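Service request form, structural biology core

Requester: graduate student, group of Dr. S.
Request type: structure prediction, single chain
Budget code: on file
Notes: please return the result as structure tokens.

Sequence provided:
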Amino acid sequence: MDSRSVSVVVETPARGLGALVLALARELGAIALVAARTVLGLPRLERRELARALVQFGYDSVPLAMATAALAGVIVVLQSGLYIQRFGARAFLGWAAGYGVLWEFGPLLLGLIMSARIGARNAAELATLQVGGQMEGLRGIGLDPFAILVAPRVVAMELSMLTLSTFTFLVAILFEAVAALLTLGLPLRVFFGTFAQMLGALDLVGGVVKVGAFGLAISLVSTAVGLSARGGARAVGQAAASAVVRGCAAIFVLDFLLTLALAGWMS
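Core staff response, request fulfilled:
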């Protein structure tokens, strides 16, 4: 291999890494800009748009969130029950199942489901407005699109996630208890006894912190993707798909970082 070939082999990965770093920096910069302009738009937030977004993102998501929580609760018990029976630790099932839902499965599944539902919807709607020129039209008549359209959606998605997490945690734990009774014959008093004795308020705080971070990530990522859409109808579809992929990636990264931070803080 001559020196020119060696130079090409070395430069290609370096260029790829550099392009990846620049793309990541642009993405983070766009999200930071959306966050800053949203905060500035909060004092002039359009309340009717906030109410509409709360219904669209929160109330309409209740059936999906409840169904996901019920299935997640049953699956956690069925999976953990295999090991619980193997090691003769049935009495600790309430703690193990509750800990899994509060700390990991509940926030993670809720975040992924909501990224697919409300993140994609938010990105598609904003992309449609951006491509159709309505966003530029608002600026043309002296109105702030962030106060009218963006800030209400970000606030609504965050409030919806936090509210839905309360119900999903309760539904998941209830279905865990019923599944433990029906499949393992574990009495409800034993399940909830270990749940109450071995889990504290900090365990619930960890789950709520994760859900709040995931909700903020979904709203900011989907908004940044929607506002950056350019072109025609194809750009709307690309924005929706991109919002789901980037939102899920952000959730997994945040989950890793928050789990490390919260576990270290609570230990």
